[in-house]
Write a structure and sequence with these properties.
The protein is α/β, with parallel strands linked by helices and 401 residues long. It folds into two domains: 133 residues, Aspartate Aminotransferase, domain 1, CATH 3.90.1150; 240 residues, 3-Layer(aba) Sandwich (Aspartate Aminotransferase, domain 2), CATH 3.40.640. Helices cover 41% and strands 13% of the residues. The strands form three sheets. The protein has a seven-stranded mixed sheet, with helices on both faces. Strands 9-10-12 form a three-stranded antiparallel sheet.
């Protein structure tokens, strides 16, 4: 009797939203939970033990991103890090100017922080992007003025994976004595992320994108950069971010980031292979699709695809019914009915934006899982198009979809 193929019940393809915790990180955190319960601010033995774990994690994170330990501040995640970087620099440097430059495709935590500052009297210029989702460098040059104090551009976009020219932006900014912040949350673990090579003054990262725990992240602040404290209270994090430190989560982040940096090249190649395999399979199976963004200049784990004549939310729900997890955009905006601000900025129509699905891959996805997803995707697209009033499609077998 031939061996029966194992039935696939669930396939997770939303790694850009979050990743499962690795067993190594879990063991690291469990050990801390069980043995080191002290408050790292306490002076007794239990506090000192917790403080030692805190500083070990700080060293791990700093080494992974090419920073000094004293330049790493732990946060609750990417949103806090972005808010602190932008608002902290704006408030601390207001005497030098009140103008900030960012891109129109940033994560909501950056865009909303900037809009909040506009209510305080700051001016913000939102730089456009090209059809591939890459920021317009010439527009940044044009936007710089004597009042510009900060440029914040993400290293890689969370929806379409487009990689931004951060090094060039940093060189331009520093020639004008302007600070540079980058949101590297999506890039960490899949791209080389070194603060010196990027030339940035501030950088945000988060643990749960690299197989670590949720609710913990870090902000790199280059030595000498003026930034206001994030929260008033105790003197934690060198009197810059008050609140009892979450030692188990911070320990988990240290381990996760250490592994991510060590395995980055291997992980990136694995993800590229899976991405290529998936894209070829989808192209071979389904007509009337288009890739959002450039296939080469994007994160190795990201594909954002528009399915003409299909409503993205309906497609997502049909795939979910088959145990397949994907996304229509940023997880932080999933409750919104508005089309993606990223895709609109790239020149897509509202209809195209609403027909788009983000597939983001993890290092443990297998070819059989890809095959299953593509087959169920084909069936779902075919069904949705068959009931669409927009037009009649032909599939690659010549049948009406």
């Amino acid at each position: 009797m031939a061996n029966k193929k194992p039935e696939i019940k669930e396939v997770y393809m939303d790694y850009a939203a979050t990743t499962p915790m690795s067993s190594e990180v879990y063991r690291e955190m469990l050990d801390v939970y069980q043995k080191t319960f002290g408050n790292s601010s306490s002076l007794h033995y239990a506090g000192r033990a917790a403080q030692a774990i805190l500083e070990q994690a700080r060293i791990r994170v700093a080494k992974a991103i090419g920073a000094k330990a004293g330049e790493v501040y732990f946060t609750s995640g990417g949103t806090e890090g972005n808010n602190w970087a932008i608002k902290g620099v704006a408030h601390a440097n207001r005497g030098n100017g009140n103008h900030i430059i960012t891109s129109c495709i940033e994560h909501p935590s950056v865009l909303e922080a900037c809009r909040s500052l506009e209510k305080e009297g700051f001016r913000v210029t939102y730089i456009p992007v090209d059809k591939d989702g890459v920021v317009d460098y010439a527009a940044i040059i044009k936007a710089i003025c004597p009042e510009t104090i900060l440029i914040s551009v993400m290293l890689a976009n969370n929806e379409v994976g487009s990689i931004q020219p951060i090094r060039a932006i940093a060189e331009l900014a520093h020639s004008q004595k302007i600070l540079v912040h980058t949101d590297a949350v999506q890039a960490l673990g899949v791209l080389p992320v070194n603060v010196d090579e990027l030339g940035v003054d501030l950088m945000t990262i988060s643990a749960h994108k690299v197989y670590g725990p949720k609710g913990v992240g870090a902000l790199y602040v280059k030595k000498g950069v003026k930034i206001s404290k994030f929260m008033d209270g105790g003197e934690q994090e060198k009197d810059m971010r008050a609140g009892t430190c979450n030692i188990p989560a911070i320990a988990g982040m240290g381990k996760a980031v250490e592994i991510a940096a060590k395995e980055q090249e291997q992980t990136a190649q694995t993800l590229k292979n899976i991405k290529r395999y998936f894209w070829k399979k989808v192209n071979d199976r389904i007509y009337n699709i288009s890739l959002n963004g450039n296939l080469a200049n994007r994160l190795p784990n990201n594909l954002n695809i528009s399915f003409e004549g299909v409503e993205g939310e309906s497609l997502l729900m049909m795939l979910d019914f088959k145990g397949i997890a994907v996304s229509t955009g940023s997880a932080c905006s999933s409750g919104s009915v508005a089309p993606s601000h990223v895709l609109l900025a790239m020149g897509k129509t509202a209809e195209q934006a609403r027909s788009s699905i983000r597939f983001s891959f993890g290092k443990h996805i297998t070819p059989p899982e890809v095959d299953y997803v593509v087959e169920e995707l084909y069936k779902a697209v075919k069904k949705l198009r068959s009931i669409s009033a927009i037009r009649i499609y032909k599939d690659k077998d010549g049948e009406e979809e």
